[in-house]
């Protein structure tokens, strides 16, 4: 039996544990948690029972109110995340489209007179935009570089990367990606938008940014990791929904690619957020249609509507489609491997030399990109326009300053166009639209497509990992649709009689490259369907993705996993490793000595223990009256630091104190070195019982490590205590014990005792 | 320390535990599990270490081969499930369409002469089909009644309902739903198809049906519950994919609605299965297009293509759409409540009287349905055909014996049609197509729609729960699209200037009713988009679903949950109940005495214990040499029964035996009463150590019950042992301890020690 003072301590612990941050517990578990009385205690102290019941009811009332408020805030935040991310996406798109629009308009008007002057203006314009981006990122928000998806993935897996969800990162991400995408680099704005959504969600979860005094106490109801993670999951989905105008794709992306823990209630909220984004973006685009947003309107959000394309497919086409899948898998895996090497080299050699090197690097990449995208089309001979069909809305060459196919660039005659310029000397969105376009058979020569593929692939590899916000979706679609269209051209020539559109193959190519590189499946499939607005190609996209992912998986891991690993984000995969099956929990702990605290501990001891190791959790062990030792809970380093900093819970006596309540103000990120204690303080004691987590998860020492892994991974834990085998069993909990009916309508429903665990 | 013989026992247990069915462990955990040596033991017995290592390597090799085979079979099964479910769906559809086609053709040809004769033929035809269905179900496969989704949900939640996944249930489901749907009852074939897919998957998982000698030992690699559940999940997705030709919807349905445990690897396999289904169904339909399948071809699979419908929507339309959402929530909740009452009453009064009553009941329902669907249109006055537009492909009245709008039924003049007959006297698929149809404004009168709504709603409520296979999707769509179109008519009249299609409102109505009744969200949304082949309405469907689900949730639970509860399937929700936060694990066990076994137990004792209670798991407790007791594992009733039946592990000595291997043939569903033992047998002993699960999950006695619930639910457990608090901590496992790198490429990747648990 537990001794009485111990019991007291544990009880109070239940009370106060709820007020401390960062616990392993379920969110609602804590909000509603209140002073509870243990069964064993109520039995021995009968006179307390009635009082306790009244108290319980009152607490339950208050708890329910709190839960209601909490749920309301959750949904309100989902709404805000949707609106915020939608607006951010609209802002980024309008800015990028306008910068790019001015750039191309200016260049086109100058090259009517001089190609050299146009070239210089084009280079300078790009350089300026790219420099603004890299300057913001390196000087102001270093965590905004890259796509951010590996870091978000890590966060949702339980690993914090420093600065990843700050307000300055949000700002850096938004303005940085305007510069880098507007500057014509081989990167996209979609990954950064996911990160943007996650930042918005996280800031809301903290009740605003404390540093910039934008916070409100009323909104600070989310104290637990799990709640924050849920919000960030919503943010990710909102980001994808906004980037591709693909609400269902967003939900699936959040589900498949980023979250590690998922509950179906969360799905509903994520779905709501995505729907809000869809409405916000649609409204904004409707507003822009009247021409209020400058160049934005005809370009902008990627919706490559190919609904007037190929409707049907024949079995003969499955072979070339499978080939596209294989190519996608190979090129995708190669992309992952190359970027891995380059990022590794960059991190260990180049970026160690400071932010000036980073800036020079990005500017160089911008210069090369500009030279290639302007210079290569110059070398290419123009082709005569195809004969104009009646009813065709596609003009050749397109009118200057407009978007569309058949770009007239450095062509002698009027009725000519430059096929390389059509895809190279254009914004990426327009290039993709041109590649996907139907009814434009033989627009591109194989030579141009091949040149573009090689050059753009190289540019994308080199650009990846520079210090600007960079997404891989759009470059991936560019690369994939280029070789897809190439295959499509051969198919058109080979199977002459069929109604085949090269654009369809371009779409499949895009899907295959993304599948081969990112290894997403269902979400990617839905995103592709949503951005092309064509459901009929779904089975084909599925087929191509299956092949490309399988091929890619034979070589390496997905892009995000590789990058996360390289960045030192220790992602826990959903499966235990093979060798874990033969290890026990005890072996996993190794020979490390367990550092534990007694229940009442001297402040000096706490300080020296915290200084001498880097553990984040400490078991607390107490002794019962008859001398047995007993593990009474787990104390986190962060909680100890809060206690040391506030000092109000210090006591002079080395005996357990009376149970007290009182939450602590939570200060994040304090280190033991920041805390200064007088020598008087060091001589005092702390009773840890009210502050520890009284029931951490435990496993017996000889449990198979893969079982432990599952427990850890599935419940999203941070610490598991390994204890000796138990000497006796107090009870056995089965499904029936957990089926507690609500009081209402329990009489109308009669539960049969179906045998719930007969063998089958 | 553990004593030596105990250690032996536990080791052997690891070996043999893998051969017994129905464990709580992860699948792969067991397949690869082999004889392991404990760290502590290797230390004390140094000379054994080398031998052990060689043994380990050999075992690892064999294990890897086994894992490869296992993964291969998994994917092969996914392929087979896809093909099987696709073919089953095609078969059901062809049969239903042909029966219904003959029926309507015959009736239409007879009513040219006599309406009375036509009426009788119609009634008889329906009665015959329905009777065949109810006869098959009551006499041959009682588990095939109803939709089967609640039972499958229960199965995937961990509860077996008797006979739900047998071969005879599969046969009963397929032929039963042909009869019930072909016979014109107010039910659909989609729920049964989900059940069909699950049955196919489960039979494959067992390696065929043992009873019908259709099994193969090579395919019996799936011994664990988890593997079977994964397969059944694939089967569910395949069923939805086949029913609606909605592969993505199928994946999401399996994810959102049926599974309780989900891993992203499974998603990939489920996705593959759905893609296979899509290809199979498409191929079959292509084959049928040439007219080889009789009446199937123009009708059949529900694809209500409304891509020529409304493209855009204005803000003013959001209000009526929200109203549709509210109506859907209200009518859906009412539907759930009414069916709950009727099913309750049926189960407790009507169906207790035997299968003859069930048959009479269904025949009565069929009679009423026939009378209403034939008789009501007779009472309705015909309307004149609208003026024919040029280019319109819709004929009025439609040619006899064809599918389409504007049915001429009991009309005097040539250019007239009966609007009630258009929706009532038709197959449900065609009725829905007619309700969704665009460019047919003012086809229906409000009076007809209202009549139809009331009558069909009542029929659907009454039909639900009868002893035939019955899905609720199509009736739900019928009901919803009727009131949706009704609202649409008012909108068309009210906002005169807008380009509004009544068909769009019918679609939204369908979504709202399904949302209000089944409470699905993302999956339903995707299914609706896939069956209507129109992505543009996605945000509207989302909006309507959000509202209808919220309204419905205010009244009761979803249809499947209600039904599962009524059938005594104890579903564990994904959240713990509110009151669990204040309970401990010990309180949940109550005062039940724990029945445990010693390590070596007398057969007579086993028999008497198994007879005296209904527990399914028993802790096994042994004593070390120095007299301490120690919990060495958990023994399942099913395993004990296998041991008792085979008798080969009986021994004469009451001392622990030498470790032996050897798996047992698994026989399902034996009961203690089936086992007959001689008095000699009863005097013998069994050493349980080789057969028990050596490391069941344990929780300390005072852990909060909501924490226990999460553990139980998230890991899909059947038993948790409640033990006293530990007296000491052997180690602490954190994220870092679980990050074991694979041997390859571990040198290229350098893991930073990112602080994974600083507070934020």
UniProtKB/TrEMBL annotation, chains A, B:
Cellular component GO terms held in the UniProt record: chloride channel complex
Q: Which Pfam families match?
A: CBS, Voltage_CLC
- Judging by the UniProt lineage, the source's domain of life is Eukaryota
Membrane topology reported for the UniProt record: Multi-pass membrane protein
Extract the Gene3D superfamilies matched here: CBS-domain, Clc chloride channel
Listed A to Z, the keywords are:
CBS domain, Chloride, Chloride channel, Ion channel, Ion transport, Membrane, Repeat, Transmembrane, Transmembrane helix, Transport, Voltage-gated channel
Matches recorded under SMART domains: CBS
GO molecular function list = voltage-gated chloride channel activity
CBS domain location is 692-748
What does the UniProt entry say about where the protein is found? Answer: Membrane
> Which InterPro entries does the record associate with it?
CBS_dom (IPR000644), CBS_dom_sf (IPR046342), Cl-channel/antiporter (IPR051280), Cl-channel_core (IPR014743), Cl_channel_pln (IPR002251), ClC (IPR001807)
SUPFAM superfamilies xref list? CBS-domain pair, Clc chloride channel
Q: Where are the transmembrane segments?
A: 75-96, 116-137, 231-254, 266-285, 318-339, 449-467, 473-495, 507-531
Family of this protein: Belongs to the chloride channel (TC 2.A.49) family.
Name recorded for this polypeptide: Chloride channel protein
**Taxonomic lineage:** Eukaryota, Viridiplantae, Streptophyta, Embryophyta, Tracheophyta
């Amino acid at each position: 039996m537990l001794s009485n003072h111990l019991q007291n301590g544990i009880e109070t612990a239940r009370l106060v544990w709820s007020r401390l941050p960062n616990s392993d517990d379920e969110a609602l578990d804590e909000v509603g948690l209140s002073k509870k009385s243990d069964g064993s205690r109520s039995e021995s102290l009968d006179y307390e029972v009635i009082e306790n019941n009244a108290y319980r009811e009152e607490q339950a009332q208050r708890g329910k109110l709190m839960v209601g408020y909490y749920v309301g805030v959750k949904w309100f935040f989902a709404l805000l995340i949707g609106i915020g991310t939608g607006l951010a996406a609209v802002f980024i798109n309008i800015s990028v489209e306008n910068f790019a629009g001015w750039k191309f308009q200016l260049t086109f008007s100058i090259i009517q007179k001089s190609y050299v002057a146009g070239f210089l203006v084009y280079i300078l314009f790009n350089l300026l935009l790219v420099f603004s981006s890299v300057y913001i990122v390196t000087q102001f928000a270093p965590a905004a570089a890259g796509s951010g998806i590996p870091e978000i993935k890590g966060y949702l897996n339980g690993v914090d990367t420093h600065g990843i969800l700050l307000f300055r990162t949000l700002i850096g991400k938004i303005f940085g990606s305007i510069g880098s995408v507007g500057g014509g680099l081989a990167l996209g704005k979609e990954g950064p938008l996911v990160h943007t959504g996650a930042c918005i969600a996280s800031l809301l979860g903290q009740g605003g940014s404390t540093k910039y005094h934008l916070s409100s106490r009323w909104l600070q109801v989310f104290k637990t990791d799990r709640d924050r993670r849920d919000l960030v999951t919503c943010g990710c989905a909102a980001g994808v929904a906004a980037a591709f105008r693909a609400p269902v794709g967003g939900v699936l992306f959040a589900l498949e690619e980023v979250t590690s823990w998922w509950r179906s209630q969360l799905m509903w909220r994520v779905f709501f957020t995505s729907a809000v984004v869809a409405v916000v973006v649609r409204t904004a685009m409707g507003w822009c249609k009247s021409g209020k947003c400058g160049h934005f309107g005809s370009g902008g959000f990627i919706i490559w509507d190919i609904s007037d394309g190929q409707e049907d497919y024949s079995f003969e086409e499955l072979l070339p489609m499978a080939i596209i899948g294989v190519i996608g898998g190979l090129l995708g895996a190669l992309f992952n491997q190359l970027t891995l090497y380059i990022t590794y080299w960059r991190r260990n050699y180049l970026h160690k030399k400071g932010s000036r090197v980073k800036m020079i690097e990005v500017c160089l990449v911008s210069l090369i990109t500009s030279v290639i995208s302007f210079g290569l089309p110059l070398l290419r001979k123009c082709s005569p326009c195809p004969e104009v069909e009646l009813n065709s809305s596609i003009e050749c060459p397109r009118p200057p300053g407009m978007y569309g196919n058949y770009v007239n660039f450095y062509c002698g005659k009027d009725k000519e166009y430059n096929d390389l310029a059509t895809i190279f000397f254009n914004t990426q969105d327009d290039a993709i639209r041109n590649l996907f376009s139907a009814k434009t058979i033989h627009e591109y020569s194989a030579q141009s497509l091949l040149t573009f593929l090689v050059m753009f692939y190289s540019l994308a590899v080199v650009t990846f990992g520079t210090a600007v916000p960079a997404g891989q979706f759009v470059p991936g679609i560019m690369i994939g649709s280029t070789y897809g269209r190439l295959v499509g051209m051969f198919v058109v020539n080979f199977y002459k009689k069929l109604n085949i559109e090269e654009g369809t193959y371009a779409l499949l190519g895009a899907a295959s490259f993304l599948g081969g590189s990112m290894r997403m499946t269902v979400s990617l499939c839905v995103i592709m369907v949503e951005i092309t607005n064509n459901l009929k190609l779904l089975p084909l996209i599925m087929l191509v993705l299956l092949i490309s992912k399988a091929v890619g998986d034979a070589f390496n891991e997905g892009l995000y996993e590789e990058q996360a690993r390289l960045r030192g984000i220790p992602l826990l995969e959903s499966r235990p490793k093979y060798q874990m099956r033969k290890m026990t929990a005890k072996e996993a702990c190794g020979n490390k000595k367990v550092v534990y605290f007694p229940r009442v501990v001297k402040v000096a001891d706490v300080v020296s223990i915290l200084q001498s190791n880097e553990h984040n959790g400490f078991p607390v062990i107490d002794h019962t009256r008859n001398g047995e030792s007993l593990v009474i809970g787990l104390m986190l380093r962060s909680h100890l630091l809060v206690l040391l900093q506030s000092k109000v819970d210090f006591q002079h006596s080395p005996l357990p104190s009376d149970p007290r309540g009182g939450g602590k103000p939570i200060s994040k990120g304090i280190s033991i070195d920041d805390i200064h204690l007088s020598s008087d303080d060091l001589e005092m004691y702390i009773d840890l019982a009210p502050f520890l987590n009284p029931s951490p998860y435990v496993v017996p020492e000889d449990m198979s490590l893969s079982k432990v892994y599952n427990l850890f991974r599935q419940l999203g834990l941070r610490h598991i205590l390994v204890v000796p085998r138990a000497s006796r069993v107090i009870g056995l909990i089965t499904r029936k014990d957990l089926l507690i009916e609500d009081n209402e309508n329990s009489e109308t429903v009669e539960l049969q005792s179906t045998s719930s665990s007969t063998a089958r």
